[in-house]
Specification:
Structural class: mainly alpha
Shape: globular
Number of strands: 0
């Protein structure tokens, strides 16, 4: 995964990337032309792109070609993600069936003015993601609450906006946390400590978060009309509070969800709001609702495997790193490498590991401090992962909200603010103390 990319011709390289282009063209272009993001299902677009990729795998039997797709789809990381989807669907439906989410929403609306709900959700997502180091875990923990609060306003665009606030905040911690996979991958590949990368990264991430928070404060008045419900049954909030508490404590997301399901079963039966059978039926419905998300995840992973086998990822790395000149150009190429590969892989950790070695080489050659290169790798991959509608975090959030994957896109202010600050950090070479080469890079 960290090997130096093998140069290929432009035609072959573009052809290797064409399955991703076919998928994006079908999904995004058709949806934009129709003015409806439900017009082209993601699964159909992925199926067409994958089929085209399998056609391009020449010199192999059909079973071998399909095997390339299937082995990538069946990667342990993908199966692990599917387990999270299954448990998340079960918990969300179980909690809703016993009234836990409604009670938590009521408690929240009584505690905070409506105009501060959206900024509060963004800040909460930032804090939780920073604590647990995973954007997926944050999305699982907060999205059901955000959706129900938004629906209280009776406007679907508000639901998409609230979901976008959660997704943006989730990537704040994914990018900055000490225990995030992306932090670990970026610091190991660039040869710097996590604390040093944190100190460099904070100058990019925090200004972007402040800009985003200001935007949410300004537009927060749109939620000011949310009616305040009657006092809730506080006992019904236990499953949700347990989810939040264990998530913040850094417990594995699978364990968090299992504890939440158990708490929902016990609380619902004890409070008399739902029987054991009714809760189990709700859990089954929740698992069924994850079906499309699971299919999309498997197909996206298979498509990535085909593109990688065709040499598309190596071609992208080669072309983006070929004509680097100067320190600013080196930093820009590192960011573009990470972001572009993430668009192809839909996994920010994999993107960092894929381009980590070549990025380290570029950084050393042009005197880029490894703390800055690690920060750029992590930040750029998180920006891309936050913006693509087929990323696991967006798919999870929109599935829980009942939205199309592209619905939150117009309201994703955080990744655009992060893009702006990252670009400024490259142009003006800040933080200033990282303008010189770090001792570890010599």
């Amino acid at each position: 995964m960290n090997s130096t990319p093998t140069p290929v011709t432009t035609f072959r390289g573009l052809l290797a990337l064409s399955p991703v282009a076919v998928f994006l063209a079908l999904y995004l272009v058709v949806s934009l032309v129709k003015g409806d993001f439900y017009a082209m299902p993601v699964a159909v677009a992925l199926a067409v792109g994958s089929a085209w990729g399998i056609v391009l795998l020449r010199g192999r039997s059909l079973s071998d070609r399909i095997g390339v797709f299937s082995r990538s789809a069946a990667h342990p990381d993908i199966i692990y993600m599917i387990w999270i989807f299954i448990l998340a669907g079960a918990f969300a439906s179980a909690a809703k069936s016993i009234g836990a989410i409604d009670a938590t929403v009521a408690l929240t609306l009584r505690a905070f003015p409506g105009e501060w709900i959206m900024p509060g959700l963004f800040v909460s997502a930032c804090i939780i993601s920073l604590s647990i180091g995973t954007s997926v875990g944050t999305v699982v923990a907060i999205t059901p609450l955000a959706v129900e609060i938004a629906r209280a306003a009776g406007d679907e665009s508000t639901v998409a906006m609230f979901v976008a606030a959660v997704i943006g905040g989730a990537f704040f911690g994914d990018n900055l946390s000490f225990i995030s996979d992306t932090t670990i991958a970026s610091t190991r590949t660039q040869g710097c400590s996590m604390s040093d990368k944190f100190k460099a990264n904070i100058w990019i991430v925090v200004p972007a978060a402040i800009i985003t928070l200001c935007v949410y404060v300004v537009i927060g008045h749109e939620a000011s009309g949310i009616p305040v419900p009657d006092a809730p049954n506080a006992w019904l909030t236990i499953p949700y509070l347990l989810i939040l508490a264990t998530a913040i404590a850094g417990v594995n997301v699978v364990v968090v969800l299992m504890l939440g399901i158990l708490a929902a079963l016990v609380t619902g039966v004890a409070a008399g709001t739902a029987g054991l059978t009714a809760i189990c039926v709700a859990m089954g419905e929740g698992i069924d609702s994850m079906g499309n998300l699971i299919v999309v995840t498997l197909m996206a992973a298979g498509l990535v495997g085909v593109v990688k086998t065709l040499g598309g990822i190596d071609f992208l790395i080669d072309r983006l790193s070929r004509r680097v000149t100067g320190r600013r150009g080196a930093q820009a190429s590192i960011a573009l490498l990470a972001g572009s590969v993430d668009v192809c892989t839909a996994n920010n950790t994999v993107a960092i590991l894929t381009v980590g070695t070549i990025s380290s080489t570029i950084a050393r050659r042009f005197g880029v401090d490894p703390r800055k290169s690690a920060s750029l790798l992590d930040t750029a991959s998180c920006i891309a992962q936050c913006l693509i509608p087929y990323g696991a975090q967006t798919l999870m959030a929109t599935s829980l909200a009942g939205l199309t994957p592209a619905a939150p896109w117009p309201y994703l202010y955080y990744p655009w603010a992060l893009t702006l600050v990252t670009a400024l950090s490259i142009i003006f070479l800040f933080p200033r103390r990282l303008r010189g080469s770090h001792p570890s890079a010599v």
